Amino acid sequence: MGQRNIKVVLAYDGTDFVGWQRQPNGRSVQGVVEDALARMHKHPVHVHAAGRTDSGVHAVGQCINFITDIDSLPVEKFALALNSFLPRDVKALQAEEVPPDFHARYSAVRREYRYYVFPSPSPYPHLRRYSLWVNRLPDVRLLNAYASCIVGEHDFSSFCSPSDPSPSKVRLIHTASWFPEGSQLVFRIVGNAFLWRMVRALVGTMLDLEKQKADPEMMRKILEARDRSAASDSAPAWGLFLHEVQYE
């Protein structure tokens, strides 16, 4: 049988998962997807993912790739076939055949995350898994002033977990902005790659600074400190979505 490299775009509700990466104890997205592919192929299949989302983080544009030896299934029907083996909280949105050297993680050039905030005097129960509730509308102009400080190439040591194993904490941020979307406030960030818990640390710090009505220069000073203790606590996982992964 011939082998094909298949790229699949996934969406999932991260609430009931320990994260993307397979864990010895706990339900992972990777484990669920690989188990579904194993049932479909009748042998183990390993997948590569563009991003390793944490426990509770969602996705509408996670990209994976894997090698298949099923040559009788047209690629345009691959997502539908895979979905018949997947649970309700993980679904394949689309599939395509890609070159043999394509790798979901290492071939990616940009990743986009979005964080959702729901400003309202009272929380809405149906949004509790997918957005952070705050009891008032933050000053969007001020939030965007903070966000502008992180655009460009910077060392983001102040905004990542101390356990992040990356040898370099330098990342390139192409876009970072806040905007209203319906009843919610959205933080959109696009970068070449992200450190562990980086987006949540940025969101938590910006919201904290906005409460204090701090000058945007404070955000710049926190960034330049290269010290996690200089920033605020991370925003909770449930408001974060891996929105899109871009390739050349």
UniProtKB/TrEMBL annotation:
Transmembrane intervals: none
One record GO biological process: tRNA pseudouridine synthesis
The alphabetized UniProt keywords are:
Isomerase, tRNA processing
Q: Does the keyword Isomerase apply?
A: yes
The record places the active site at 54
Q: Which residues bind substrate?
A: 113
Q: Where is the Pseudouridine synthase I TruA alpha/beta domain?
A: 11-107, 151-248
Q: Which Pfam families match?
A: PseudoU_synth_1
Check the record and name the InterPro entries matching this protein: PsdUridine_synth_cat_dom_sf (IPR020103), PsdUridine_synth_TruA (IPR001406), PsdUridine_synth_TruA_a/b_dom (IPR020097), PsdUridine_synth_TruA_C (IPR020095), TruA/RsuA/RluB/E/F_N (IPR020094)
The UniProt subunit note reads as follows: Homodimer.
Function statement: Formation of pseudouridine at positions 38, 39 and 40 in the anticodon stem and loop of transfer RNAs.
Give the family this protein belongs to, as stated in its UniProt record. Belongs to the tRNA pseudouridine synthase TruA family.
Q: Give the protein name, as stated in the record.
A: tRNA pseudouridine synthase A
Gene symbol here is truA
